[in-house]
Amino acid sequence: MMEEICEKAKTLRLKTIADQLPSIVETAENNNWPFSKTIEHLFDLEIETRRQNRIALCYRQSKLNEKLTIDQFDFDHHSSRKKQKTRILNLMSLGFLKEKMDVILIGNPGVGKSFLVKAAAYAATQAGTKVLFTTAMDMINHLIAADADHSLLKKLSYYHSPDLLVIDEIGYLGLGKQGSNLFFQVISGRHETKSTAITTNLPFADWGKIFDSTTVATAIADRLVYNSQIFILEGSSYRKRSKPNNQ
């Protein structure tokens, strides 16, 4: 009978229940668990396993190359970090995702922009949220290649579908006319439906240097700023900070 129940559980894709049933039944008998408690415990195990599997899948699909958490962030490095500490910590609570808000981090290289979006992205994966991390140039290069082989709609869907799309390092290289138009299509397709987080080394006034024209730059900025949280990080590069063993 036990083997038959396990096989039926496998047929219903209740793998954890199938695997754990014999040991849980034994535990229940030894501890005089009521039938309802045994069943509830089995389903709790199945639900938790699926939750953990979803978290693992979300992380694998996110393309994040590291697991950064906000407790690793040095708020004492610069006053701009201290002033925005509450806002930054609130960002990690992921409320912006529910409100379909965008997040924009502006500042010079090394001030912590990428760290914060990666930490928020990792937190989102741990909440079972679909996330995708990319650099601006990597995304544009993939879109241009897709345009060339007539798979652009499929690739655009790839960037439109995540609940959180992180686009890192906007502004270091100009995107050109084609790249700017493709970038606009990504942002336009996500506008008010999904959250996008970006990091840039340039203020909005200089976005004409990134995109092909001020018209495209303005259209992109308008969509991103419409419903967003903006963080401006100042100070010197954290990577170049003086360390005790170097002094």
UniProtKB/TrEMBL annotation:
One Gene Ontology term of the molecular function aspect: ATP binding
Annotated AAA+ ATPase domain residues: 99-231
Keyword Ligase attributed: no
SMART domains: AAA
Keywords attached to this entry: ATP-binding, Nucleotide-binding
SUPFAM superfamilies per the UniProt record, alphabetical: P-loop containing nucleoside triphosphate hydrolases
GO process annotations (BP): DNA replication
Any one Pfam family match given in the protein's UniProt record, by short name: IstB_IS21
PANTHER family linked to this entry: ATP-BINDING PROTEIN RV3427C IN INSERTION SEQUENCE-RELATED, CHROMOSOMAL REPLICATION INITIATOR PROTEIN DNAA
Family under the similarity heading: Belongs to the IS21/IS1162 putative ATP-binding protein family.
Name of this protein: ATP-binding protein
Taxonomic source organism: Desulfosarcina ovata subsp. sediminis
